[in-house]
Amino acid sequence: MRPPALYPIFNSIESIKGIGIKTSKLFKRLLDEDKLIYLLYHKPVSLLNRPRMSDIHSIQPGDRPVFKIKVISHIKPPSRKSPYRILCQIQSFKGDELEIVFFNYHKDYLIKQLPEGTVCWISGSVELFNGHLQMSHPDYITFDEEKIPLIEPVYPLTQGLTNKMVEFAVTQAMRALPKNIPEWIDETLLKQTGWPDFKTALYELHHPKSAIDLTNESKARQRLAYDEILANQLALAITRSRLKRQKGNALKGTGELTGRLKELLPFELTGAQKRVISEISMDMACDFRMGRLLQGDVGSGKTIVAVFAMLQATESGAQTALMCPTDILSRQHYKKINQLAEEIGVHVVLLTGREKGKTRALLLKEIANGTAQIVIGTHALFTPDVIFQNLKLVVIDEQHRFGVEQRLFLTQKGSAPDLLVMTATPIPRTLALTYYGDMDLSVIDEKPASRQKVDTRVIPAKAREETISKLKTLLQNGQQIYWVCPLVEESEKSDLANATDRYNELNALFPNRVGLIHGKMKGTEKDAVMQAFLNKELSVLVATTVIEVGVDVSSATVMIIEQAERFGLAQLHQLRGRIGRGADKSVCLLMYDYPLSEVAKRRLEVMRQTDDGFIIAEEDLKLRGAGEILGTRQSGLENLRLSNFELQAELISTARQDALNIIKTDTMLQTPRGQALKMLMYLFEKDVYISTISAG
Ligand code: ADP
Ligand code: MG
After folding, report:
1. Do 318 and 435 have their domain in common?
2. Which of 4, 330, 581, 666 has the fewest CB atoms within 10 Å around its CB?
């Protein structure tokens, strides 16, 4: 598959002469990868100066000065454990003395390498010790001054690896690049930007000349970031075009069931909901496959939009699957959707890991013979023994829990089903393009008018007792409260507030009114507690983040989050999204413990100021890495090495446009530029995607 010219650069790091198994393992730990090319993608983070000094006072902290020295004498260590010292005279400054110190040493080697009277060049970090200038383990000892660079890049390292080893390995890796790498960037763009070619850019990345070369101003870095982004965008464009070229099913619907649904709804759809419902409806009706992302803030009413889509599929005689990340959520969706569906006359079933034995067998039968028109569940829906009769629409709720590859896998069930993905967390545009560039986008940018802004307050932990004492009044007024803790139980190594303790405490004060729910409970136990809270039999629900995603109890109006500083922004936003769902005024208390880091302080402040999920997502992206925003670290597309947030924001639109145009006009990547772009994709290990185009 991979062109032979690229074999050397995809060899393992161990193949470098002079690097053994042990060191190559360290590299693997550092880079998460074992191939030479990843050395080239490892960016230096700072510079090290090796100034030629003419006087001792001009040495700056951090410098590794270069001295011309003459060896005066070897000082024999008094014991085998003491360091070996060599006294020298600095030739560069009229006679100052310097001691070279070695802690681990081969005596014979040092005597041979630096006999008395030797004149040579050394460089390393110096310090003043007992009035003597000292250099321990010089980085360089050489007769040739030219061998000591003026400036060296400094790399992120891992225990056991030295900067020199990385520099050496990078140099070797540069040699493994093919001689001729064709240019894949469009000529006009190259002229406009003045970017160097790929190989030169890599060389410059590893040979910075000044601090500016380490910033986004560096043309080499810009170019490499663009290459990486372009490779990603091409992968997405290929996936997208594959999806689009595939004949799908025209799920035109009849309007009969959706019409009845409209009559049943206890509320008026928002304008945004109506708009996205019609976008989805038209997309489903055309006979190409749908791949659509539905974005909308917490509480913007995505579920009902999905129900419209599902009923349109039902009208067209097709089955639908709705997949949720948790048991709780699938049960909740099942209950709500089934209620509506029963009135409309549609058969909905629930299938999770918990349906076993006879129940499961019956469900499988209904799914296989098509009587189950809408199937709701968790991952369990997509185990191999679940066979659909006629699956033509897959809806995934709260998508950020599922990886890109899972998404592709899902669509392989059934015959080219349409795909509707709903995100729980709004995603900044840059990220949406990075991760979902293969899909069309529908956005609900409006919340139901009945929603009120949640009154959010940030309070110190010491106000806890006071807060508890206020609960009494709240409970008397019939309010329902979520109390969120970071942990389930006391764990030895942590001082995190735990739900079990808090439950015991509150339950003692308000007997029979408090429930506890956390991830370690059995599914049926969780359901029972949730149901009791929904029925208002319980007033306080002490919980961990299991309630984070999607749970909908519209009568709950108060949320208290302990140690809120431990949660990420997206998580806080999701949690808070559980309240403020009904027409009543809601309050969220973010309790924090000292000491509060700057980032944590900023997060809480953002939460207090806004409830706009898109703003929160942008802030989140600034405060943390992109990988974290989408939940777990996912495989494939999101491993950016050469790019960063700012460069991405700057370059992604151009790269996306570029990629879409290329795939449109040169679908098989056969033109000369197409060939070059294939090389680009191989260099960023997008082989899978190339194989899909070759397969046609
Ligand atoms: P999310 O977008 O977070 O998944 P849901 O779909 O769970 O939101 O909707 C939240 C709540 O808002 C539900 O109780 C739902 O019935 C209600 N809802 C949805 N659309 C509207 C609307 N247009 N007007 C009033 N309430 C609505
Ligand atoms: Mg939802």
Report:
1. yes
2. 4
Among residues of the chain, what percentage have pLDDT more than 70? 93
What's the one-letter identity of residue 486? Answer: P
pLDDT at 368 over 90: yes
Give the per-residue SS3 of 356-421: CHHHHHHHHHHHHHCCCCEEEECHHHHCCCCCCCCEEEEEECCHHHCCHHHHHHHCCCCCCCEEEE
Distance 230 CA to ligand 2 centre (A): 33
pLDDT of residue 428: 76
- Asked whether residue 224 is domain-assigned, the answer is no
SS3 618: helix
- Number of domains comprising the chain: 4
From the number of C-beta atoms within 10 Å of its C-beta (0-12, 13-18, 19+), residue 465 rates as exposed
Domain assignment of residue 182, given as a range: 4-46+154-215
Residues 45-59 pLDDT 10s: 999 889 887 777 777
Tens of pLDDT, residues 324-339? 888 888 988 999 999 9
Rounded CA separation 649/209 (Å): 26
Residue 425 has pLDDT above 80, yes or no: no
- Domain of residue 480, CATH code: 3.40.50.300
- pTM reported for the whole predicted model: 0.70
Whether the CB of 450 sits within 6 Å of ligand 1: yes
Q: What is the mean pLDDT of the chain?
A: 88
Which one-letter amino acid corresponds to residue 277? I
Examine the domain organization and report whether 179 and 300 are in the same domain. Answer: no
Going from the Cα of 48 to the center of ligand 1, the distance in angstroms, rounded, reads 57
600 C-alpha vs ligand 2 centroid, how far in Å?
A: 27
Atom of ligand 1 nearest to the CA of 303: 6
328 and 377 in contact (C-beta within 8 Å)? no
Minimal-distance CA residue to ligand 1 atom 24: 448
pLDDT for residue 407 is more than 90: no
Instruction: Evaluate whether residue 400 is within a structural domain.
Output: yes
Q: Are residues 377 and 492 in the same domain?
A: no
- What pLDDT shows up at residue 637? 41
| CB-proximal residues (5 Å) to ion ligand 2 | 550
Q: Quick one: which ligand is closest to 580's CA?
A: 1
Same domain, 300 and 425: yes
